[in-house]
Amino acid sequence: MKKKLALVVVHEIYGVNDHMQHVIDHFTSSNTDVFCPNLLQLQNSFHYSDEEKAYQHFMNHIGFDGGKKQIEELVTSLSSNYTHIGLIGFSIGATISWLCSNNPKIDFIIGCYGSRIRDYVHIKPICATLLIFPEKEASFSVSPLIETLQQQNYPLLKIKQLHGEHGFLNPYSEKYNEHSTKQVYNIIDSILMKTIS
Q1: pLDDT (tens digit per residue) in 147-156
Q2: Average pLDDT of the chain to the nearest whole number
Q3: For residue 116, what is the DSSP state?
Q4: Among 91, 156, 93, 75, which residue's Cα sits nearest to residue 123?
Q5: At what angle do helices 63-78 and 92-99 cross, to 10 degrees?
Q6: What is the CATH number of the domain that holds 62?
Q7: What domain range is 122 assigned to?
Q8: Which residues are CB-contacts of 4 (< 8 A; sequence separation ≥ 6)?
Q9: DSSP per residue over 28-91, as a string?
Q10: What confidence score (pLDDT) does residue 90 get?
Q11: Four-point Cα dihedral 117, 119, 124, 129, nearest 10
């Protein structure tokens, strides 16, 4: 018999670190198995102070297409054992998740501050997709991106903008915003409940 739900967590440039472990622990339940594949294929994750190094490593060795390929391979292998599969991605992981949103094996996608989604606005999700953006991003203006996405009129896309900066969901970062994180976790919990009920 197939199990209920596989939730695939798609990590940031740093790899499978303390924040990803926190997410895995939070969402693992009797109905939900959580997977966080190491896209970097390195033994250790990058430290937050090595942001530039981590970004270069990701862009030079994996890239968004490489990340998408790894996630879709995992989704294919999970689909024989699970009734439902969802993705939750953070930062580059959110952009990778967005790139997977036209995969028929995926039931839902949650993308948190995927700033590079701005390069891929013409992808039309075929599964329920929630994109979460902060008030502000260092590298671009958030509101025009949200407007552009809304103008596409994708029926399965919902967008939420919350207080905070890029990284506001990470309790190990100075960007952490507890109130916004609670809101996001409540939304995710209700999506998970709806999926498995």
Answers
A1: 999 999 999 9
A2: 97
A3: G
A4: 156
A5: 60
A6: 3.40.50.1820
A7: 3-196
A8: 31, 32, 82, 83, 84, 196
A9: --SSEEEE---TT--SSPPPGGGHHHHHHHHHHHTHHHHHHHHHHHHHHHHTTTEEEEEEEEET
A10: 99
A11: 0
Find tokens 């939304």 and name the residue: 187
**pLDDT for res 114:** 98
Amino acid identity of residue 172, one-letter, is: Y
Question: Which of 76, 73, 79, 98 lies closest to 156, judged by CA?
Answer: 98
Q: Write out the two tokens for 20.
A: 């990803």
What 68-75 contacts at long range (C-beta under 8 Å, 24+ apart), as own/partner pairs, is: 68/96, 68/99, 68/100, 70/37, 70/39, 71/8, 71/10, 71/37, 71/39, 71/96, 71/97, 71/100, 72/100, 72/103, 74/8, 74/35, 74/37, 75/8, 75/100, 75/103, 75/105, 75/106
Give the chain's domain count. Answer: 1
Low-confidence residues of the chain: pLDDT under 50: none
